[in-house]
Amino acid sequence: MKKEGKTDVSRPYKLAHQTLCIRAINLEKKSLIGYVELVIHPLRQDLKRVKINSKQCRIYHVSINDQYEAKFLYNDPTLEICQGDAKQRNLDYFQHCHFSAMSAVDPDNGNGEITVRLPPEMYLNIAELRPFRLCIEFSLENPKGGLHFVVPDLPGPAHENAAHVFTAGLNNCSRLWFPCLDTYSEPCTWKIEVTVDNELTAVTCGDLIEVISTPDKKRKTFHYFLSIPTSAPNIGMAVGPFEIHVDPNMHEVTHFCLPHLTEILKHTTNYIHQAFEFYEELLSSRYPYTCYKHVFVDEAYVESTSYATMSVLSTNLLHSNRIIDQTISTRTVLAEAVAKQFFGTFIAMQTWSDAWLPMGISGYLCGLFIKKTFGNNEYRFRISNYLKDVQDYENRVGGIVLDPTKRDSNHHFSIKSPHTVSPRYMEAFRSKCFLVMRMLEQRIGEQLLIQVVNKLVALATTGASQKVGANTWGNLLLSTSSFLKIISTVTGKDISPFLELWVSQSGCARFFGNFVFNRKRNVVELELKQDLGAKGALKYVGPLTVTIQELDGSFNHNFKIEENKTKFDITCHSKCRRNKKKKIPLMTGEEVDMDLSAMDADSPVLWLRVDPDMNLLSHVTWEQPDYMWQYQLRYERDIVAQREAIRALENYPTAGTRRALTDILEDDHCFYRIRMEAAHCLAKVANSMVGVWAGPPAMMTIFRKMFGSHSCPAIIRQNNFSNFQNYFLLKTIPNAMALLRNIHTICPPEVFKFIMELFKYNDNSRNKFSDNYYRAALVEAVSKTVTPAITLMSTPGQGPTADNLSAETKQILEEITRYLNLEKLLPCYRHTVTVSCLSAIRTLQKFGHLPSEVEFFKSYAQHGVFRDIRLAAIDAIVDFIKTESRPEDMYWILNLVETDPDLYVRHYALQQLVLNPPFRRMETSALHTEGLVERLWKMMNCTFSYDSRLRCDAADVYFTLYGRTRPSCLPIPDNMVVLSLKDRKNKMNPAYVPDEMEEMFDDEEEDEEVGMEEGESSQVDTEADIDVTDIGGEEPSLKRKSPPPTELPPPLVLSIGSVPETCPLGIFNEDSASQSKRLKLKMESETLEEPQVTEPSKASGTQEVTVTKTPVTPSSATSAYAAEFLKFVGVKQEHPAPEPQLSVTMDTSSRLSEGSSSPTTTAMGSESSAPLSFAGLLPSSTSATDMSSATDSKAHKAKKKKKKNKHKHKHKHKHDRPDKDPLGRIREGSFNSSENSPSVTQTTLSSPEFEI
């Protein structure tokens, strides 16, 4: 919803339509081939360049209107953030370089990785502002981000093993799998064609127009068309052997799942039509698209990712009708995915600074659906959780700024780009978006906010039906300024101060308060202070509501906060009490009988609350007597007030607190989540009162009264989970009792015996619901009874053995072993029992009851095991690293982070290193070495260049371990130079495209002819000819070696007419720009198998190569693209697959359906030898990476000198000497840095290898 008449001056053209054609997909080789066609409307008559986003795609050919070939330049500084830097290792420097690199390719700044020079033949059409078509042919091989292939390592065809592929990523990740304008601010219509094998189904955005099969019935093409303008980041795709289920209640909705999961798919999605009906009725508008598709996939990047007309969701969300716990979370995720179709894909953010609007509105709409479906208590409980999450993050880490255009933050990362923010920051960011939108609802009213949202949808619907123009589709984009204007139009209110306080600033208000009742004046003297010194604190100035519950009712008082310390006098409406019992009217209008004997006889105040409706992002520390908290817990009907009272009563271990908590635990009318929290609070109070506690252990009598059999209360009844409140209490009370401790700080024997009897008498034979979560809770409870072991060691270093284990520990081990063995035979839903068993085993290890053995957990963390089990094993391994500090275990977890096929597992492992780090900055540890610093720095600098989430995760780990300054374990370099981070011309980070690179496209034809003549004059007899503009026309006998992913970067394409997979900034100088059609390249004769590090002057075995003219149109029969496509269609497996290390049964339904078979894992040679020292975390000192630092300074000086004299000697002596050839810089870079510039070898470059 941009302002009318406003044109995006940073991009001098408008995208009207885009065609995405995927010609073939190879699941076995994890590759695809296709082309895109962009219809571009020039907005300026002097348009000469078009910038496109594309990463990790191999570009074959670029043409205009299928008539003219276009030259292009590839520049991606994000491949290596700190280029050429051998000294800097502080996060402030990395943050600056990271944001600069992202800005250099940000389409909202008019930038991109690919710069296409329009041919002179198009200048006349552009002067007349005629639209033109830009066609780009590309392929993608083994992507590291953006597109995720799930190919089980099993015998047989891929489709029979449920192999599939889907888009995976967060904001602005479409560039990772097809060339596009990867920005939300450039919507257009789409035509998408996907050709797949006949056994597969392709699901993508838009309406399915037709499916056309080839004559041999081996392949088929799905044709989709999306008539509503949509931005490229909202385009997604999924291809696999999906089973299809059309929603019986709403035929526009179609669900897709992997084989054998249709039954649980039907149950999981049987309510989705209710979400559509709710949103349509609430917004007074129909669903904006004509169809909607749910695609459930394995190894999902996140639980839910929304695209136009479709959502890609995790298979782990599916559940049968026997599962209780998963239902609420799954329905919440699916409902939010539908809400994002309205705000997120149909109406998208204009820029990153406006992202809080669609996130906040979609979260707000989802919250209203939760309120209607699960009740107001569940809704307010979620609000309370979100508020606590935001408070905790801002207090521990730092402030959250929703609109970063006006203010920056003090984080170790930049908040001005979605690719640079921390994943933890993004989680808190989404929560704050929802809270701010709800605060806005409280400020202007629910009905008026709904009218504003209705207006946004109505304007967008009208704009989507118009034809392309400079501003016709602006209503599909939502910005802060347009939102402010619409609110002013609909409501007549100015919310600028509100947005300035909560959107443009960071922090939460932090209040400390207490009060005293003045009997003589009959007033409450209230004092409030603001803590402005804490991290994440915000100075609040504005209205504040205080609620006082008196004998005669509940009364609200509004005050104006202007100072840091404020005092108020509140006149009471009630007099002092006269009777011990009285009916007290509550805020809800209900009157209840209260026993007033505990309260102060001189005060009519029962309790007092600050900001009861959570109208502010605030943290309130409130002081009042314990009896007031007890009254508030018993009689206040707001669950947020009850949570506040429970947290406060932890500090008041008295008999009155015990009775209040017990009453809540037994009250069937109380919200079940409050009763669960009361159980844990009662356990803490009981531990504090252990010296004066009388009677049986806390909660044992309550549990037997609720769940014990009538004839023998000590024996639990058969399971019956039809009462969901009792079911959750059944799981919670044993866990709370397990935390009880006697005066010897060990679990009381009667409590331990009680929990073990629950194992013994558990009977689920007549229960219609699964008891897997209950059994997992019992394992968790028994692990909480464990306390540190006290054993006598006969010899030094002797660990615990089976003979010296206590009787209780032996019983625990027997139950865990029994459950683990039972899980292998009869696995439960999502293997919840196995997860709890792994956690329990780690607890026994930590407390000295079992030997600390990490190999056990490594076997469960291997790829092929169910994801939840792997995550539990990673938790244990990270905790093991913290306690043992063994370098080989840290080495193992970092290898998993770098190489594991499941991207979420890699993300989770890094997150655990942040939450449970092996050490923190300024701490002493055996892991605090230079090798670990270099390993982490390499991860965030270049290893994770195609996954911004992993890159930012690595930066979080680095910050947690070392802070923002240079790690103390690194030696101080002798020639350390302080660099100005504000200097945009900093040569240590060439994130900005040099002017000489842009001027390359302005060279005249006579320059090319001169370069050709000079190039021909320098030929030698030993030179061979190679086509540097046609990368696909290779000799049949030549193949490109596939370098190991951890050693060498992808091959380099040395042509202006083609783009490399990873091409460092600055390899094309002006000399190379004026090269002729016949270029002479010095090339290494060795292959990439054993890269040798030598000086450029010592290179031997050089050959020269020749070029031929590339074809003009993509349909040419002689084009490299056509040849590769013909090869692609006839793919066959030539080399046998490597022997798998794990034997895995990949029946996906076994993970989800109760009582079915489980994915079992058997280790087969999976153990790898760990390095003896932590120095093994880095490659050998003789590697190309290490030796590159030795020649870094020399290469930098040579380049600087060359640039200085480039205008004097533009074409003079270009080919006189071998070291002065046009591509000398490329050859030099290939020897100096294996990370930035790949080595040039005799092997010709080609597209992905496909066998005929």
From TrEMBL:
Signal peptide interval: none
SUPFAM superfamilies for the chain: ARM repeat (SSF48371), Leukotriene A4 hydrolase N-terminal domain (SSF63737), Metalloproteases ('zincins'), catalytic domain (SSF55486)
Region (Disordered): 1001-1027, 1069-1116, 1132-1252
Keyword Protein biosynthesis annotated: yes
Record field: compositional bias (Basic and acidic residues): 1216-1228
Compositionally biased spans, kind Polar residues: 1094-1104, 1142-1171, 1230-1252
Domain of life of the source: Eukaryota
GO biological process: RNA polymerase II preinitiation complex assembly
Domain Transcription initiation factor TFIID subunit 2 Ig-like: 506-625
Subcellular location: Nucleus
Entry keyword annotation includes Transcription regulation: yes
Keywords: Initiation factor, Nucleus, Protein biosynthesis, Transcription, Transcription regulation
Domain Transcription initiation factor TFIID subunit 2 TPR repeats, residue spans: 626-988
GO cellular component: transcription factor TFIID complex
Ranges of residues in domain Peptidase M1 membrane alanine aminopeptidase: 270-458
Gene Ontology MF, one: RNA polymerase II general transcription initiation factor activity
Bias (Basic residues): 1196-1215
Family: Belongs to the TAF2 family.
PANTHER family: TRANSCRIPTION INITIATION FACTOR TFIID, TRANSCRIPTION INITIATION FACTOR TFIID SUBUNIT 2
Protein name: Transcription initiation factor TFIID subunit 2
Species of the source: Magallana gigas
Lineage of the organism: Eukaryota, Metazoa, Spiralia, Lophotrochozoa, Mollusca
